[in-house]
Amino acid sequence: MTIAKEIMHPGAHWITKEDTLDHAARLMLELNVGALPVGDAKERLCGIITDRDIVVKCVAKGKNPAECKAGEIVEGTPRWIDANADVEDVLHEMESHRIRRLPVIENKRLVGMISEADLARHLPDDQLAEFAGHIYSPAPVRH
Q1: Is the whole-model pTM more than 0.85?
Q2: Cβ atoms of residues 82 and 70 within 8 Å
Q3: Where do the structural domains in the chain lie, given as residue ranges?
Q4: Does the keyword section mention Acyltransferase (predicted)?
């Protein structure tokens, strides 16, 4: 059985809700990543901020990334997976919520992230194709 901890990218960095978006962008550049988990003052996961979030929710709206805080643009219920969860649980979580990155938690601490690239390195082609079909197919229309 393959578990989350075996396929994750270890040592994920995170920022706080109070960190500015220019800090987040510089950290993303330094780490060569497109997303960072966001935590509160008690180091609880609040969500994930992406490079796209910074552009769309800050820069494109004329806000100053040096003044805008991560907590102002992070939205939704944070999704995560336990480090010992089976890869099938990882896939279910990512597919059912249509997310491309998933924080990995062990003993209430962030220990890594699972991205599409991690899945591509560890899953057989048929399983990866099924995952991509779920993530990239059009969202169901809600009435």
Answers
A1: no
A2: no
A3: 4-136
A4: no
